[in-house]
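ok, trying the design again with the full structure, not the truncated one.
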C-alpha cells in the first residue's frame, strides 16, 4: 500500500508507484491493468488512480483499450531510436541551460552526483547507478528553469528508463556509462554551457550505441 506524506498528492503517489512497477517490469509489457485491482493494491482512491493512468497513457507507458481498461505498452527498439533523436536535442538544451542557470545549492548537488557516479563506475553497483541517474535527470530538469523543456522530457524518461532496465544486463558497459553521467554532472556544475552540451551529446552517443546493441540482441534471439 502506498503511504502519502505531506503535500504529495494522491494522483502523484499513484503515478509514481504504477510508473515504477512498469519501468521495473513488475507490470509486464502487454499486461492488461484493472483499475479496480490497482485501487486495491495501492490503497488509493479510484479517481487518483484513473488520473495517473491517463498521464501514463500520455507518456506512452500504457495504452487505453476501450471497455477493457489499459494495457502496458510493448517495448520497441526501433521506436526507442526515434525517441533518442528528440531526446538528444532536449537533453543538450537542458544541459546548456542548467550550466548557465543552476544556483549554488544545485551545483553542490551536481558535484555529489558526479562523485557518486565515479564511485559507481568502480563498484558497478547497478542499483546505485539507477538512483543517481534518476536524481541527475530530475536535477537537470529543475536547474534548467524551463518548464517547457522539463515537461517534454517527462514524456520521455519513463520509456527510456524501462528500455534500459530491460536490456542493461545484456549490453550495458556500466563503468563507461557511469563515467559519462559523471562528466555531464561535473560540466554542468562548472557552469560551462558549451562543454555541458558536448557532454550531453557524448552520453546520448553511448545510449544510442547501447540501443543499437540491444536491437542486435533482439534480432539474434
Amino acid at each position: 500500500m502506498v503511504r502519502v506524506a505531506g503535500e504529495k498528492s494522491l494522483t502523484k503517489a499513484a503515478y509514481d508507484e504504477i510508473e515504477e512497477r512498469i519501468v521495473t517490469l513488475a507490470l509486464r509489457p502487454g499486461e492488461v491493468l484493472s483499475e479496480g485491482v490497482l485501487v486495491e493494491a495501492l490503497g488509493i482512491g479510484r479517481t487518483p488512480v484513473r488520473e495517473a493512468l491517463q498521464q501514463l497513457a500520455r507518456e506512452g507507458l500504457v495504452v487505453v483499450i476501450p471497455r477493457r481498461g489499459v494495457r502496458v505498452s510493448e517495448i520497441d527498439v526501433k521506436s526507442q531510436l526515434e525517441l533518442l533523436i528528440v531526446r538528444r536535442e532536449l537533453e543538450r538544451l537542458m544541459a546548456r541551460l542548467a550550466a548557465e542557470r543552476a544556483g549554488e545549492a544545485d551545483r553542490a548537488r551536481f558535484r555529489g552526483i558526479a562523485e557518486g557516479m565515479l564511485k559507481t563506475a568502480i563498484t558497478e553497483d547497478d542499483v546505485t547507478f539507477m538512483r543517481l541517474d534518476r536524481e541527475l535527470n530530475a536535477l537537470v530538469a529543475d536547474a534548467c528553469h524551463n518548464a517547457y523543456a522539463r515537461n517534454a522530457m517527462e514524456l520521455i524518461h519513463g520509456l527510456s528508463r524501462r528500455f534500459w532496465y530491460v536490456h542493461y544486463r545484456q549490453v550495458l558497459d556500466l563503468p563507461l556509462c557511469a563515467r559519462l553521467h559523471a562528466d555531464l554532472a561535473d560540466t554542468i556544475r562548472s557552469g560551462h554551457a558549451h562543454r555541458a552540451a558536448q557532454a550531453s551529446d557524448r552520453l546520448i552517443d553511448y545510449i544510442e550505441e547501447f540501443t543499437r546493441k540491444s536491437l542486435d540482441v533482439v534480432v539474434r534471439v
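Keeping the full-length input from now on. The chain has two domains: 10-72, 77-220.
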